[in-house]
Amino acid sequence: MQENSYAKVNIYLKITGTKEFNGSLYHTIKSRFVLVKNLYDTISFVPCKCKTFTIEGIDIPKEQNLIYKAYKAFNLHTGDLEIIDFFRFHKVVVKKNIPFGAGLGGGSSNAATFMRMVHKYCNLLISIDELAKIGATIGADVPFFIYNYESANVSGFGEIIQPFKEESLNIEVFTPPIACNTKKVYEAFDNYCQIDKEYQNWQKIPSKELLEKINDPFKLNDLFAPALKVYPTLKQYYKNGYFFSGSGSSFFKVK
């Protein structure tokens, strides 16, 4: 039982405001997410007698791991004892290739892939839409990965997903040895930046065409400038013709 857990890039990312969700204030966005099919982790369910829910391959405390949060969210939402029983006899093994703090959605992709695998192998009687709603309680990028669209327009907190039909893109990703903290980058946006509304019809333009038309990483991604404020050494890694993904630190281009 093994599935690929793909990275994503943000072709564009515009901050549209803030809104309360589950008692907290979150930024709302408009963005184009595209899967990077040549960069992925693998998630495996491996037979093993386990006293507790077990994850191997990620060196962070289990309580901070989005896979574990997904497991807890499943139990809270469904109350399905089959899930608990399944993971008494299977452990989760993650083979990591997607860097941490890279703006590529690695943790969210892992959680979503885990959820789709549980949905499949535990025969859960819930829809993909309901699965995505559970995913939204874990992380803003999780619903996109649950739907597994190759390209989609994403808005709201990340929970509104509209598939976008376009040609497959050959994306090259470059990640500097810097791990960006998403919370700090968003805080820098709030302190130093203003909302830019110059993105009215971007959701209708194919990704490759949009990159060629705008051709400015600062205009395409509202988080590039605040990321440079928090991590000024990022500037030395920027290469002409590359674009900034998410809250960083990765740069990408379409070959």
CATH fold-level topology of the largest domain: Ribosomal Protein S5, domain 2
Q: How confident overall, as mean pLDDT? A: 93
* Low-confidence sequence ranges: none
Structural class: alpha+beta
| Percent in helix | 25-40%
Number of domains: 2
CATH architecture annotation of the largest domain: 2-Layer Sandwich
Distinct helical segment count: 9
**Would you count the extended β strands for me?**
9
What radius of gyration results from the CA coordinates?
A: 18 Å
Strand content: 25-35%
* SSE topology string: EEEHHEHHHEEEHHHHEE
Overall outline: globular
- Which CATH class of the largest domain is shown? Alpha Beta
Biggest β-sheet, characterized? 6 strands, mixed
SSE order and pairing:
Blueprint: E1 2-21, E2 24-47, E3 55-56, H1 66-78, H2 81-86, E4 90-95, H3 106-121, H4 128-136, H5 142-147, E5 151-156, E6 160-163, E7 171-174, H6 182-192, H7 207-214, H8 217-220, H9 224-230, E8 243-244, E9 251-254
Parallel strand pairs: 3-4
Antiparallel strand pairs: 1-2, 2-4, 2-5, 5-6, 7-9, 8-9
Helix pairs in contact: 1-3, 3-4, 6-9
How would you describe this structure in keywords?
255 residues; globular; Ribosomal Protein S5, domain 2; alpha+beta; 9 strands; Alpha-Beta Plaits
